[in-house]
């Protein structure tokens, strides 16, 4: 009886809509399987009316019967045909078998707004309708998983094909992509920053609806080639779209879930080192200042007539000069690193650009549409019935809005409930859906949409920024104080101004050189490449963001070195004037 159940379920229960062009590419059907398929392709009579199976379920049955491992006997085929005939009433009740004479009009009557019912239809014999029941003849009262119905024909009224075969409205605008930027902004949250607006159809870097150019594709492949193998990686980082988290699994078994587990102990070594540098620089600056003051080595102090301690003061100036120059190097490097981090890793504009370059929006949009198409297919609609509702521009706009607000620690106020309303409106052409069924479909699509526009990147960046600021706020204040003290002590401890200026310039030059060396190490070693990061767009995002951060670091380094060079030129000018 397994064959009977399979045949019945295939025809009446499964909600998998395949195209009618599916053909038997394997062993084909034997004569018994062909007889079963012919019986399923025929008409069924129920309560005086003729019905037929929906085309997509015939295609599913055809694909099943064409499998190499399926070889029905005459008895099995006969039993399956009997099972189908016995389930006609169930198929009609559930909407899997549709009336032969019923076709969807090219211009279906619209649903009366607000009344929750469809346009009135003439009742067929045998149909009953309870008071308050909005069910149309043949409709399904409640949409269940696997429920299907006949897909509507597209309404092309008022449109004409353009040279590319696409439908355009009477003004020649493409019907799918005629939404203006103003309309998009009106549909979404009112607290969206202008910089978060979605790209146009063709972006400045050649991206078209999330696809990539050949040059971009080549760069992606070259970047992905640098990724470590899973077996050899120091850690594995994966993005779980289902719960919108990023999991970090170290080789020693340590596991973190981001952003939930972002805590100071994750970066204890690095943060502790930076905090130690800040405290040390401030202590060294204060101790140096005390030593200079105690020895009377500051220019504003009254000097004694005796020169008995001149050598001692000179030695103290020399030692404190080296120490204060070292303090300047630490402080300039620390402050420059803070600026670099803010400009690179917490730069909302660059984060959005890196996501775009990595192909994230394209992949996320495709994943979303796959889910929506599956929902439509299961319910018997055309797969692309929501394509005009869930456009790429609107999706990217909403996603960028969510990320940008997350980077500010704010929740998006947009609920995108209009998506549900538009889906219900798009389903109005399907006669056999009740208003309740349409609303269930609209709600299902809305859930997918809301889940798809969320992205963990913004939440993680904000959590990291918040944690760093919390842990290093005091350190930053200490470095700011120590750099001021160091400059003041250097300038006032030297008899000649140009000597102090030379030490300050040395601090800038050494700090800039260290930053250049660090940027070179990042460029060559690519620390992110030692991790196995999936999916591909997450690895590309980190690689592109790191690539940009290196450029920022080089720029800051060059500016720091430039300041040092200018100070050295100033020193040379001061020495020249002194000699003159």
Describe the structure in your own words:
The chain has 580 residues and is α+β, with helices and mostly antiparallel strands. The protein has helices spanning 2-12, 31-41, 55-65, 74-86, 88-94, 181-187, 214-224, 268-294, 310-344, 348-357, 360-378, 392-407, 417-426, 435-453, 456-493, 497-525, 536-579; strands at residues 43-46, 49-53, 97-99, 160-161, 167-168, 235-240, 245-250, 255-258, 531-534. Helix content is 55%, strand content 6%. The strands form three sheets. Strands 8-7-6-9 form a four-stranded mixed beta sheet. A three-stranded antiparallel beta sheet has the order 1-2-3. Helix 2 runs antiparallel to helix 3 (55-65), helix 9 packs antiparallel against helix 17 (536-579) and helix 12 packs across helix 15. Residues 1-27 and 102-210 have low confidence and may be disordered.
